[in-house]
Give the backbone structure.
Amino acid sequence: MFILSRHSFSSFFLVILSFRSSFFLFILWINCLIQPTKRLQSIHLQGGDFEFREKIIQKLA
């Protein structure tokens, strides 16, 4: 029973992780359409998709 619940949790985690990465790629693609690539590279070099998302949300707001 414990193994089953742990397996379902890991699969759920994988789904969340894949959704998060696809969401990040979607945001990255939109950012490529909106902004020049130099700005995109500087943001990408800073690292952290959380900060990246925060900047996008601030721009959209």
The two ends are 46 Å apart (CA to CA). The longest helix spans residues 2-34. The mean pLDDT is 67. Helices lie at 2-34, 37-46, 49-60.
